[in-house]
Every structure is written in C-alpha cells, then in structure tokens.
Write a structure and sequence with these properties.
185 residues, alpha/beta, TIM Barrel, 4 strands, globular, binds flavin mononucleotide
Amino acid sequence: MELPVPIMVKETGAGICREIASLIARETNVKAIDVAGLGGTSWSAVEMYRALRRKNYYAAEIAKNFWNWGIPTAVSIIETRIGAPNLKVIGSGGVRTGLDVAKALAIGANVAGIALPALREAVKGIENLEKYLRRIIDELKIAMLLTGSKTLKQLRKTDVVVTGRVKEWLEQRGIDIREYLEKFR
Ligand SMILES: Cc1cc2nc3c(=O)[nH]c(=O)nc-3n(C[C@H](O)[C@H](O)[C@H](O)COP(=O)(O)O)c2cc1C
C-alpha cells in the first residue's frame, strides 16, 4: 500500500536502539524516527496510575517496577543516528527546556520534540503555551550564543562532551563517542 504523505516511526517514552533503527531503515520507507526515549513521560507510570484508579494493586505494583524501563533519550538519539544515518531523527522524551533542545541537536537529532510540558501549558491556555515556547526559543538562542553557533547547522556540529551514565551506557554498547561525533553528525 502506498500513502501520499511521509511516514514517521515513533516510540512513546522507552527509546529506540541502533538495531531497531537499522531495521526500520532497511525494511521500510519511513522518513523519520522519533526516539521518544526514557527520561520524560513514563507510560508504565501512566499504567500504574490507571491500575490504582481501578484498585488493581497487583497491576499497579508491576507497572511501578517498570517505571524506568527504556533507553535514555540521549543514548537513543545517538543509537538511532548510527542505525539509520539517512533518516531524520527527532529527539524527544524528557525534553523540557531550550537547553535540552540544544543538547538533543548537538548530539545528532535533526529536531527536538516536547509533549507533556507543552500539553500542560496548552490546557491552561494558548497564551501560556506561547510563553513556554518563547522561553524554549530564548534558551535555545542562549545555548547557541554560548557555543558560538550562528546557525542550528553549526550547533549540530558543536563539540560535545558526554559524561556519567550516558557515557557508561554508550561504552557498554561499544559506541565510541568521539568517532560517532565525527562520522555520524
Ligand atoms: C497526554 C499525552 C498523550 C499522548 N498521546 C500519545 C499518542 O496518542 N500517540 C503517541 O505516539 N504518543 C503519545 N504521547 C507520547 C508523547 O508523544 C511522547 O513520546 C512522550 O510523552 C515523551 O515525551 P515527553 O517526555 O516530552 O512527554 C502522549 C503523551 C502525553 C503526555
């Protein structure tokens, strides 16, 4: 079947790994992958609250134990870029500020996505949403100024240092961050 519009694959809060990104790139004709990684809205948490509402404490306990299941967003952006180097990568899952947007772009996302905080502002009113998005833009501009990036293209090539849990995770997955930054961004 052919669709007249470009198709995107997205996760919903647990991230996409290199192997799945590669499979998507090989086997489908999708144009973009939204990683929706771990670190933001947790659908296991949503399931826990739904189970609690039904007083199903058994299901709630299980959902709670999977609250943090998934691939962190930063790792997922990098893995998806490696697995599907020719697709557009949307970095999302826990993106909350313009600085988060800048970080997502700097490690290889083409764009960033925000769900929960934008929805929270939107239900309060369009002015609240606009104020939130203006802050995101201002923070992104500040991050660009601080990294000497005149354009988003330059920001996407700015030097990056990866520390802590993300560094450990990438090492265990056999990903050399310096090599990645040079070859895949
Ligand atoms: C209220 C709400 C409804 C959502 N509904 C959908 C949906 O229908 N389909 C979908 O693919 N993702 C849905 N998502 C998931 C988001 O698109 C996103 O992948 C996830 O929330 C992680 O981003 P965040 O941390 O910025 O919220 C929803 C998220 C929220 C908060």
